[in-house]
Amino acid sequence: MNTIDLFAVALICGVLAWSLARYAPKAVPASSLAAQGVLGVVTGLLVRNVSFASLGSDWAAVIAVAVGTLVISIVGGALMGMHRDVSPLTGALSLIAGGSSGVVSIARELGGDDRVVAAVQYLRVALITAAMPVVVTVIYSGTAGDASQTDAAGSLPLIFSLPLIAVIVAVGAVAGRAVRIPGAGLLGPMAITIALEFSGLIAGLTVPVMLVQAAALLIVWQTVLLFNRESLRAIRRILPSALALIMVLNVAAAGFGVVLANVAGLSQLDGYLATSPGGIYAVLGTAIGSDSNVAFVMAAQVIRVVLMLFAAPLIAKVFLRFTPRSAEVIAAAAPARRELVAA
Fold first, then answer.
1. Is the pTM of this model over 0.85?
2. What average pLDDT does this structure show over 304-311?
3. Which helix (H) or strand (E) segment is 218 a member of?
4. CA distances from 235 to 47, 146, 242, 283 (A)
5. Residue 98: CA count within 13 A, CB half-sphere
6. Where in the chain are the domains?
7. Given pLDDT bands bounded at 50, 70 and 90, which one contains residue 339?
8. What's the mean pLDDT in 273-301?
9. pLDDT of residue 146
10. What is the per-residue DSSP string for 274-330?
11. How buried is residue 83: exposed, middle or buried, by Cβ count under 10 Å (0-12/13-18/19+)?
């Protein structure tokens, strides 16, 4: 990174921090909103390498499978919410099968306990990602590929990409607040990025890996700071239930994969990878390494992730309306959260 790029990074970070501090919703710290925005842009850019034409006439089946996975996630979350240490809303957010970092980043804003959501979400991704090579090799006789990422060729220089990212994040946060979108810091930039990507106006835009890692680390760090002895005990008590529900979710998604493979005329391995409820980059690496239908798998995975993130606020509203205990937990925790933000 040369001197000009370093100056650009410093300048954009300053402008972004000022914009978020001035215009962002006051209930969310500016640093959290910036991190949410970066994750939103990264998620929105997933549509770049997706060829939705590869779905052909099977797009309805792919969407149906994604919706089915969402329903199973909600049901599993409701079951987890029966535990005395977890509200139904927190349980639902914990098992949403897509965009783990994004869900964690807006969990508190939506009214959930982000400590429990973070623990279960990252456990879900870790277990499913770890199990994938074994499942692919043993059950489908495939090859587990390398999930590492490389920067796209022809990407914009930092001096251009960073200002553009900053504008998308700031405008997305402000616009989201204006239309009162829950989780606007994440969903606003994500929606704008997807729209710009489809229009071809941000060709070559990439988010530096270090910036993505910093955003995810910030979200995790702010959540970790909220842990105390009681919350750790509560998570330990729900861990067996969480493990069981995650395994049920994985098996159910594999079942959807069998159905999708039969409907779309794919191999069973393609069906499994297209419906795997976690680790999109691990799925992509495995698909490439096993000579699978990468275009179809990637399109199905991106649809799942985007659907889950946009559905999260709606799920939160439904649970707050129909599960009184979720509302009671939020009301009881509100003073403490206000003190935390004020600090």
1. no
2. 90
3. helix 209-224
4. 35, 32, 9, 28
5. 29
6. 31-332
7. very low
8. 85
9. 54
10. HH-SS-HHHHHHHHHHTT--HHHHHHHHHHHHHHHHHHHHHHHHHHHHH-HHHHHHH
11. middle
